[in-house]
Design goal:
Helix content is about 40%, strand content about 20%. It is α/β, with parallel strands linked by helices. The chain has a seven-stranded mixed sheet with strand order 4-12-11-10-9-5-8, sandwiched between helices. Strands 13-14-17-16 form a four-stranded antiparallel sheet. A hairpin with a 3-residue loop joins strand 6 (about 195) and strand 7. The longest helix has 21 residues, at about 45-65. Mean pLDDT is about 95; it is low at about 1-10. The protein binds pyridoxal-5'-phosphate. Pyridoxal-5'-phosphate binds near residues 168, 242, 272, 317 and 411.
């Protein structure tokens, strides 16, 4: 743009006129309220949206590319229209998505889906007062832990139980309550980091305990623990390695043996079991994962595990074990800071009741249902989903059914792949990344994965054939392939 270009001088002065015609935020808000076009909305909110519309309009005028109004007279109406459009389009950032990633317990997508009974319990607890901490028998204050404690004990064989907001909090609370200022012995092979910046050494430091590492990365022997135990040892800690495996020349001390070593020295063993299955998953055709009850039976004094990994409940951290230890945890002020709200307790209670009372858990708990779906079922789902998606995408996308490998996710069974089926979507001119972006903008958004030049929609956690055929804005210039 140069000074000798008369067109640009004109448009400069035009811009000035358009900008000067912009009403103040206050004027615009008053006009909207007067016309009843923002009825029911708070004035502060309308003001915010008008302010946003004003800066968007100013930017559009400055950029000069298709200003929202051609003449100064039209500016006030255009600003009001932009504000109303912004209000209409203003939805929560958080919205439902379709998980076609092939990762069953996907932390970024909110982990476990709740069982219907748990969803109903959450809604009931949200809608009306409940006896969260009120003992209806005695007419006196009660304990929210008691709502889930009996089922947790029955399901794990433990004497007592408590619940906090997640397993990271459970580990922190256990260590701080039982070993603050003292030494906790851990195998070097178990000093793990899992996603979301949970690192055992850092958690221990924050819990106020001193880490005493024993053994080596790949091999730790009973003798390593025996020799490290001293007058300042408060606990032996065992940690499920979750998202990694030590393979090859390896040795670890099993929980039963570790408990025996502890017993000889009068020292308790605490185990962070991570995903912590309540039921034996082998019954559902899945790889074996440590079951909480087995660890208690083997002598762990305390076991912590997540409520929203393999258990398939709400985000929570469950702690089960000996009554004397649980009492120390409950007396710690940290417990008050980490306690769960009524919605979590309601969902957890309903989920645990299913575990305690239901024969076929895979029918009742969505996580177990997704994990145990057969390839035959997924094959049928793929065959029905493909034409529905093809109809939605039009003739220029290529969709084929392919074999795929799904995963449990969230650090559970990292080496175990679940054979699955997927729809492989390609287009002659659109990249896989562009196709993925198009699906992310769908209503609801569909999240898949990219593999080479293809966009892959894994069906393992997709509920029904039509679930992938969502409302999509297909870029008009790709509906016909370039020749
Ligand atoms: C997942 C995991 C945690 C953290 O659990 P959250 O419920 O995500 O807080 C801690 N320890 C182990 C071994 C884990 O696998």
């Amino acid at each position: 743009m140069s000074d000798s270009d008369p067109g640009s001088r004109n448009s400069d002065s035009e811009r000035g006129a358009l900008l000067r015609a912009m009403p103040s935020v206050d004027e615009c808000v008053r006009a909207l309220v007067r016309d009843g076009r923002t009825a029911g909305l708070g004035r502060a909110y309308v003001t915010l949206m008008v302010r946003r519309a004003q800066s968007a309009m100013r930017a559009a005028i400055m950029a000069g590319n298709g200003a929202p109004a051609r003449t100064p007279d039209a500016i006030p109406d255009a600003l009001a229209r932009m504000a109303l459009e912004a209000i209409a389009a203003d939805a929560s950032v958080m919205r439902p998505v379709v998980n076609a990633t092939g990762i069953v317990i996907h932390t970024n997508l909110g982990r476990a889906l709740l069982a219907e009974a748990a969803i109903e319990a959450v809604v009931a607890a949200a809608r009306a007062p409940i006896n969260l901490e009120y003992d209806l028998e005695r007419g006196a204050r009660g304990d929210r832990d008691s709502i889930v404690e009996a089922d947790l004990c029955a399901l794990t064989g433990a004497e007592a139980a408590t619940v906090v907001n997640n397993n990271a909090a459970a580990v922190m609370l256990a260590l701080n309550s039982l070993a603050a200022g003292r030494e906790v012995i851990v195998s070097r092979g178990e000093l793990i980091e899992i996603g979301g910046s949970f690192r055992i050494p850092d958690v221990m430091e924050r819990a106020g305990v001193r880490l005493r590492e024993v053994g080596t990365t790949n091999r730790t022997h009973p003798d390593d623990y025996e020799r490290a135990i001293g007058p300042d040892t408060a606990l032996l800690l065992k940690v499920h390695p979750s998202n990694y495996r030590v393979v090859g020349f390896t040795a670890e001390v099993a929980i039963g043996e570790l408990a025996a070593i502890g017993a000889r020295h009068g020292i308790d063993v605490v185990e962070d079991l991570g995903a912590g299955a309540l039921a034996d998953l082998a019954a559902y055709g899945l790889p074996r994962e440590p079951v909480v009850a087995d660890r208690i039976a083997a002598g762990a004094a305390l076991v912590t595990f997540s409520g929203d990994k393999l258990l398939g409940g709400p985000q929570s951290g469950l702690i089960v074990g000996r009554r004397g230890l649980l009492e120390k945890l409950k007396a710690n002020p940290l417990k008050r800071a980490l306690r769960c709200d009524k919605l979590t307790i309601a969902a957890l209670d309903a989920t645990l009741r299913l575990y305690a009372r239901t024969e076929d858990l895979s029918a009742a708990i969505p996580t177990l249902r997704y994990l145990s779906r057969t390839v035959g079922e997924l094959e049928m789902l793929a065959a029905r989903a493909r034409p529905l998606l093809a109809e939605r995408l039009g003739p220029h996308f290529d969709i084929t059914i392919v074999a795929s490998q799904a995963e449990v996710g969230s650090g559970s069974m990292p080496n175990e792949k679940l054979e699955s089926r997927a729809l492989r979507v390609t287009h002659p001119t659109l990249s896989a990344g562009a196709i993925a972006a198009m699906f992310r903008k769908g209503r609801p958004a569909v999240i898949g994965r990219i593999s080479g030049d293809a966009f892959i929609l894994d069906l393992r956690t997709v509920d029904e054939p039509a679930a992938l055929a969502v409302d999509l804005a297909i870029p008009f210039d790709v509906t016909a392939p370039k020749s």
